[in-house]
Specification:
mainly alpha, single chain, 75% helix, 4 helices
Amino acid sequence: MQEEVVAVFIPIVMFIAIAVVLCVYFYLRHRTSEAVQKTVQTAIEQGQQLTPEILERLGQVPKRRTSDNDKSDLRRGVILISVGLGIAAFVALVHEEGTLGPAIGIGLLPFLVGVAYLGLWKLGKPDKSG
């Protein structure tokens, strides 16, 4: 009886923990944004000029995409393909009767998303021949 109760409460506690972590993250992000807005408002009221550098330091101006991020689709694709293959290999090693098909399907999801990212990376390359 107690094992059944524990088996039910473990997933519930896991989802509650994830929800709490997300709530704390968004709350802290909101507080930070609110503090930045208050700082900008105070600066404007005091007659200070707000240069783009100051706003960027405060985090109000979105950062421009640099050449460092040109390979982000490649990185995401490789990581997701690796995760998908890892899930599929794990399931293949520890599967029980009748669970192999659905579990391999779970591994296919990140694998196929990774393949899509690799396609986007390949299609998004600038043509350097012209």
